[in-house]
Amino acid sequence: MASKPGILTEWPWANLGNFKYLVLVPFVGHSIYSFLREGDIGYIAILPFLLFRFIHNQIWISLSRHRTAKGNNRIVDRSIEFDQVDRENSWDDQIIFNGLLYYIGYLRMEQVHHLPLWRTDGLIITALIHIGPVEFIYYWFHRALHHHFLYSRYHSHHHSSIVTQPISAFIHPFAEVASYYAIFAVPVIATEFTGTTSVATITLYVIFTDFMNNLGHCNFEVIPKWMFSLFPPLKYLIYTPSYHSLHHTQFRTNYSLFMPIYDYIFGTMDKSSDTLYEKSLEKKAEVPDVVHLTHLTTLQAIYHLRLGFSSLASKPHMTSSKWYLWLMWPVTLWSIVITWIYSHTFVIERNLFKDLKLQTWAIPKFRKQYFSQWQRKSINNLIKEAIMEADQKGVKEEKLNNNGKIYIRKHPELKVKVVDGSSLVVAVVLNSIPKGTSQVVLQARRLSKVASAIALALCQRGIQVVTLDEEEYKGLKARFTPEAAANLVLSKSTCVSKTWLVDDGLSEDEQLKAPKGTLFIPYSPFPPKKVSEDCFYFSTPAMICPKHLQNVDSCENWLPRRVMSASRIAGILHASEGWNEHECGDMMFDVDKVWKASLDHGFSPFTMSSAIEAKI
């Protein structure tokens, strides 16, 4: 929102929220009816074109987020936070507006019903008018928008994004976008008057403006230097991402639309444009200090990735899917095929913690594939390659979701430290148990080192640990000292305690048999499926991030904003404290030491009350 919103700032459908696309439904329905009755192809083709615009822009969003996370050719190094993501979630309003103009124009103007597919003379006229009147009018209109009266009421909303991403290009008040469309309509009107308009003229011009807008706001330099060396005057005819980026950081320079020539003519070209361009081209990929290695969870997790839909990535990934994602099953199916073919990890996120550079690398495999026998070798190779790549790059720590002892055993020369985060997970779970608790139920489908460590710590603190499975009881008792084992209890009754420590294998039957008011505290990376309405479900082990963790603009799976999993935090602590040893296999750190380190570095407990506040 602009600092002093003017008239027609809000979009007409702003109050509809996620239902704003309903404004197009009558036209879509009518176009389908007309096609079935009269075979009107032009009318029904509007919807596919709008979908193409959406996909085109989404590709730019994903590409920009991937490239800026890697760091090579990145222009502005500042962070993007949730407030910018929320502000830019309305980027698709201009596509809806475009659709309304097309539909209404098609219904009102009989002459557009019989347009030829191609007219070369129309394309030439469109190009000439864009180079002349459109670029000239836009330049002076843009300068007018930077006058304090219009800037405070309209254009300041767009400039709230100092660090741009492709969707930043389309974030403007309604009145401003309407003005832009009026300017861009000049070539269309001109070709209509000259009788040279065509389907290609209109569609290609819109695609061109979308492409150039995305290019100018992508925040990584992509225009090769050889183009300007081969044809020097080109620098007056096409801008670069770094050229327009300076407009967002300096405000009073580089006003041109896509052609810098008018900035050169009227003396508003930023003197550092060439320097920033060359500096951005030379920038190498960032070498992180800590790498978090993760993988896809559910089949629809691709849309919740930071590289996916930013609106979904900025919210917790709920266990129940959005209904409209089921309509995208062809894309989901194609993503599964890609995970079978593509065999390399990719960077999805970068963060900054004090002086530590953090990156998240994703293994292109879904969680279910980890349980597939024929996928195991492929996954192990991907993990091995990621560890070796991190080691070659000089990464200090690599955080693994799974046990990494096999890789350390095979490669004892590794300089990178492999961390599974078990110690902090145990510490977080122990500190999540309500004070005054004297007895807990430990449920485990398999006796992991985390479950064993939690049970041992509780028994040593004089808290009774009740197990419901005899094999589990025997396994724990064999590992404990007689003193600790004295607090270990085997019970066939589920009504012994209202505090349950559980993994993601907790069955529906076990949940329904638990006493009313039971608190389920997961210790596994994945939460159990919620069944009982009479019980409370706590978060998977996690902590609230401090303010000095920067560039946080997406949620980690189902966790709320700025809440990070304990296993991921462990890698950050490992590097911050300079602990020069691995934490994987059977090895664990002192739980109290790790918990104190997390608090010292600004992380705070994620309690039941904070979880409730995050949902409100």
Automatic annotation (TrEMBL):
Molecular function in Gene Ontology: iron ion binding; oxidoreductase activity
UniProt keyword annotation of Oxidoreductase present: no
Domain Very-long-chain aldehyde decarbonylase CER1-like C-terminal, chain residue ranges per copy: 441-605
GO annotation, cellular component aspect: membrane
Membrane topology: Multi-pass membrane protein
Keyword Transmembrane annotated: yes
InterPro entries linked to this entry: CER1-like_C, Fatty_acid_hydroxylase, Sterol_Desaturase_Related
Keywords on record: Membrane, Transmembrane, Transmembrane helix
Protein name: Sterol desaturase
Taxonomic classification: Eukaryota, Viridiplantae, Streptophyta, Embryophyta, Tracheophyta
